[in-house]
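User: I'm writing a tutorial on reading structure tokens. Could you give me a worked example: one chain, its sequence, then its tokens, then a sentence or two explaining what the tokens reveal?
Assistant: Sure. Here is the example chain.
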Amino acid sequence: MFINFRRIRKCQCVQLLTTGLVLCVLMVCWEDLDHHVVSHVRSCAYRYLVNRYDFLNRSLIISSNRRNRKDGPITVGGGARSYPYIINHPGKCIGGPGDQDDVLLLLFVKSSPENFERRQAIRNTWGNESFAWSELGVDVRLLFAMGVYPDVSQRSQVQDALRQEDQAYRDLIQQNFLDTFHNLTVKLIMQFHWKQKYCPQARFLMTADDDIFVHMPNLVKYLQYLLRSQSGANDLWVGHIHKGAPPVRRKNSKYYVPYDLYPWPSYPDYTSGAGYVVSGDVASKIYQATLVLNSSLYIDDVFMGMCAKAMGLSPQEHVYFSGEGKAPYHSCIYDRMITSHGHAADVHSLWREAIHSTASGNSRGFLGNVYCTAVRVMILCRPYFQNTYSCAAAFT
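And here are its predicted structure tokens:
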């Protein structure tokens, strides 16, 4: 039997060259591969196979010794640092068109000091308290949560503009911390502490970004349905859920979280910070968690998930709460939508279309409903990923 050793050596060289090429590609693309594939596989395995987040109690709960130290920064219960109010309205939930004990929704919008146009658009559209009372028959209280402008050279000018704005609308809540991305958790804590102290009677609390759109008629209808249900809207935390999300380890990302801050492969389940709703009892539990939970993690929606997990709470998915994406523009989508992310310049036009669709939606009839279902299937059930509404929303 004759063996061609030259051909064998040639095959071995090709194999070595191919292996080397593959290794070089892996070395060059490893960061993206690790971010998009490896970290997600590891986090999902931790979320669905291990599913133990007991480190929240072992590692992130502030001990009583640390809470009682007098040489540390001023804290509320040791977990969250307390910042003084610059602008506040303690009587916001007292009086008004409805009874004091009948505030359906306390609506907190996370805003930056310079975003006056966004706040004005919200006041004139989906955040309008007068519309909620006169057209929907419910008491909604709107507040914009913010810190101080980070640029020292322009801070005084921006602050003067904020005071003038607040004198006109009386709906700004501001504490003395820098309004930056890394202080979003501080802004989140401020909302739950304000609700606990000044508006404990509110049935629901919603926290939202100032670049989202909220279909207020649909949201109110949904909340009223929950109040009529057997559970009475207890233990409610609803939004667009992220399950088994891994921490971002790429240093060039604004969501970068180092291992020494969060060494575990997966976050607890949490809802997208663009907009979610909690019931009054859940708001109280989150408030209690912020008193003892280490608030050093600066990604606010993840910190919300950590607080909820520590208190034994789990989020509920609602298919018409948007994630980071923008909802498609179509009247058949407006029928069901509650939130949509990524709106700034088009809030007024979207509000007009949504209100018009709400007014005419009940007269569609059977064929109209079939048509809208088909439209939603074509829009939402596409093969490629879109972070708005899932395909299940087409049939809900």
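What the tokens reveal: The radius of gyration is 25 Å. The chain has a mean pLDDT of 84.
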